[in-house]
Amino acid sequence: MDEKRKKKLIWQLPFLTLLIVGTILIIRQQHVTPYQKNAGLIFGTTYNITYQSDEDLHKEVLAKLKEVDGALSMFNEKSTITKINNNEDVTPSEMFTDVFQLAQEISQETNGSFDITVAPLVNIWGFGFKKGEEPSKHAIDSLKALIGYQKVGYNGKRIVKKDPRITLDCSAIAKGYGADVVARLLDEKGIKNYLVEIGGEVVTKGISEKRVPWKIGVTKPTEDPTETGDLQTVLNVTDKAMATSGNYRNFYYKGGKKYAHTIDPKTGYPVQHNILSATVLCDECARADAFATAFMVMGLERAKKVLEKNPDLMVYFIYDKNGQNDVWFSPSLKDKILQ
Known about the structure:
By secondary structure, the protein is of the alpha+beta class. The chain has helices at about 5-30, 60-70, 80-85, 95-110, 120-130, 135-145, 170-190, 285-300, 300-310, and strands at about 35-40, 45-50, 150-155, 160, 195-200, 200-205, 215-220, 230-235, 240-245, 250-255, 255-260, 275-280, 315-320, 325-330. The protein has 9 helices and 14 strands.
């Protein structure tokens, strides 16, 4: 080895040593730093958040969740959405307008299969099924006059409704949005490993306490209430958001086929296709949440056409095929299916 190369190597050794020592310290710190666990109730459901940090951030997490609740929760009498539904003069918060505009975009992309004005129809059918009777055509037609995402808009200052009786319900997107908000908070704190779950909607990053990718099970649809927790599959959802929509124990039969109790906003009646569960993975949980709901309305073939235009979405559908559960999933999801 010539003298010039020797001198160059001698100068490089300290830097290589620092790099190796630094890497070892980072790996050791990752193993030593504990995982915090926060849980509670929000939006009428539960939340469970796990993240690797020396600091317990539950107060800050809860503050963010309450902020989302104050914008979007129909259970909150003082929320922005409640005031809008009551036709009070209110300037919507940035959170509310973000969700409202995303909801409108997805409504357009799905030709109204996702619609935050549909709640009155869902409610009347829900009450009818509980009583064992269908609502009348007259009742449905009366409500349809108040349904339609095109009948509500945002003028830059206020939410404008074409009919004051129109009500908004963001429950099919709020949980996903709340999970996104918490995930952004954890990102801002520099946290590299976490799982945020709100009412079944999930955002993950990094690895779990077991030093492996985050794994989430997809529940198998069943009519038997004693069969709880049976999994159809398990997915690797690391660095992704995931949302599932499905009426797992709420079916009706027609022509020998099984259908989920999902209401089509355009017809006012339950859908007649055989998707029983729609799981969506993408980068934003609010987007996954809304599309999962839309796909339950659209059915398999229409959903596939929407997926062609939205390659960022990966889906796992469980559907009824001649009385038996079958599955269809995006080719891009194949490597994430663990069982």
